[in-house]
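Operator note (shift B, R.M.): manual run for Tyrosinase copper-binding domain-containing protein requested after the automated queue skipped it. Running by hand, logging everything below so the morning shift can see what happened. Input copied straight from the record, untouched. If output looks odd, do not overwrite the archive copy; leave it for review.
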Amino acid sequence: MSQNMHGSMGPIGLLRFLGWHRRYLIAFEEALQNADRLLRPEAETLISVPYWRWVDPFPEWLQEFLPFPNPRTGGPVPPRTLSGSELKPSSSDIHFIINSFEQHLPGFNVDGYTKFTYGLEGFGRKSDNSRLPAHNQIHAWVGGIMNDTSYSPSDPVFWLHHAEVDRLWHIWQKQHPDLHPALTGNDSIMDPWTESYNQLGSITMLGYSYQSESL
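Run finished. Output pasted below as returned.
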């Protein structure tokens, strides 16, 4: 799988954004599991891609996930790092964004899939809640190669981030099972794969689940 595939073929700003990235996550997890089988042939369970819950305070999530101390957390000043013109948010900033996202989620639901996906993704048309492009802002906050769509999948955080995007989409799908994007013919194919959007619409049918289905 070419790392540049995400930049050159990924459907940034399109209605198939969520479905395409769901298929991308599946391909990545399958590659991890193939490697896991080689390393641990006797294992009863295989590795899976974790998700990063944005609602968790950042320092606590970081200290739990990383096996070594981080000098940027635990001090009197909220941890901020420069990434171009962007600032990495403090835990209070993340709480504000996530709480606002939760409060406005019903607004996305009322206006259907199009408004939901543009609001969550942050590309393309602006929704009434355009202050909350959670997907794009996380890429900007992390910085580095996460700011480059051609190379962002090289950052492990990319997969944790997009697993959470996929989890939020799953939650929204359960609430609105009859709302789908108007994708037909070739537009519905998740190129470079052969599956259509409709074949990727249910994680239950795809054989995986999330530990938590709450915001």
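Quick read of the result: The two ends are 32 Å apart (CA to CA). Confidence is low (pLDDT under 50) at residues 70-91, 93-111, 124-132.
Leaving this for review. - R.M.
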